[in-house]
From TrEMBL:
Gene Ontology BP annotations: thiamine biosynthetic process
Keyword Zinc: yes
Annotated protein name in UniProt: Thiamine biosynthesis protein ThiC
GO MF: 4 iron, 4 sulfur cluster binding; lyase activity; metal ion binding
Cofactor(s) essential for the protein: [4Fe-4S] cluster
Organism: Anaerotignum faecicola
Superkingdom per UniProt: Bacteria
Length: 253
């Protein structure tokens, strides 16, 4: 908090008060030793986040490391590792070992790569194990798609969209629920995820799985129902001393 206060030219007590109210977050995993903390939220300067990572279409890990270095040199405060191919864990661990910027990930992407098996065969326990693994690796914030549950998915099917689900994580979880008939494990076992976040001091980035991809789909039933759920999940996180930010709102009129 003192480091963030100095960066923002504010009093440390002001920062503490804003964090306590949930209006400012300081993503700071205890295992990210190279981190130079930054605050995100009300009354603070705007932060720059850079998305990168290896994929089937781009497998050059050295180039991704170079992008990270360039981004930090140009002033980026956060790196979002969206890797979805190859040895994702080594790449992630190198980031948290060397990079002073906040590191974020989307565990749902990594699970599909890590387990090397059909989506429907991934168990609820395995989804949670990926979250714990990212926590142990030093990730400061995670996008968790826990707001779209079975009830929201049912509403989504009743109210057809022009552009369907445009969230990658959201489409993966929707497909998994449809294939297995099970509840979203991130929603069903939310308290367990909060315990992991509290243990490592990770910020929850609540993913907007039902965000609209065009004006015609904006503020439809699925989006609003998910937002209400995310509000409830935010309060549950605060009750366990876990910091939260909420994704969105995507395309809006």
């Amino acid at each position: 908090m003192k480091i963030v206060a100095e960066k923002e030219r504010m009093d440390a007590e002001e920062i503490r008060s804003l964090v306590a109210k949930g209006q400012v977050i300081i993503p700071c995993n205890k295992n990210h030793k190279a981190l130079h903390p930054s605050g995100v939220g009300a009354r603070l300067t705007t932060k720059i986040n850079v998305n990168l990572g290896v994929s089937r279409d781009w497998k050059d890990v050295d180039m991704e490391y170079e992008k990270v270095r360039s981004a930090v040199e140009m002033g980026a405060e956060a790196i979002m590792d969206l890797s979805s191919y190859g040895d994702t864990r080594s790449f992630r661990r190198k980031l948290t070992a060397d990079c002073p910027a906040m590191i974020g990930t989307v565990p749902i992407y990594d699970a599909v790569v890590y387990y090397h098996k059909p989506l429907a065969q991934i168990t609820a326990e395995e989804w949670l194990d990926i979250v714990r693994m990212h926590a142990e690796d030093g990730v400061d914030f995670m996008t968790i798609h826990c707001g779209m549950n079975r009830a929201t998915a049912a509403r989504f099917k009743q109210n057809k969209r022009l552009m369907n689900i445009v969230s990658r994580g959201g489409s993966i979880m929707f497909a998994w629920m449809e294939m297995t008939g099970n509840e979203n494990p991130f929603y069903e076992h939310y308290d367990e995820i909060l315990d992991i976040c509290r243990e490592y001091d990770i910020t929850m980035s609540l993913g907007d799985a039902c965000r609209p991809g065009c004006l015609a789909d904006a503020t439809d039933t699925a989006q609003i129902e998910e937002l209400i759920t995310l509000g409830e999940l935010t309060k549950r996180a605060w009750a366990k001393d876990v910091q939260v930010m909420i994704e969105g709102p995507a395309t809006c009129p």
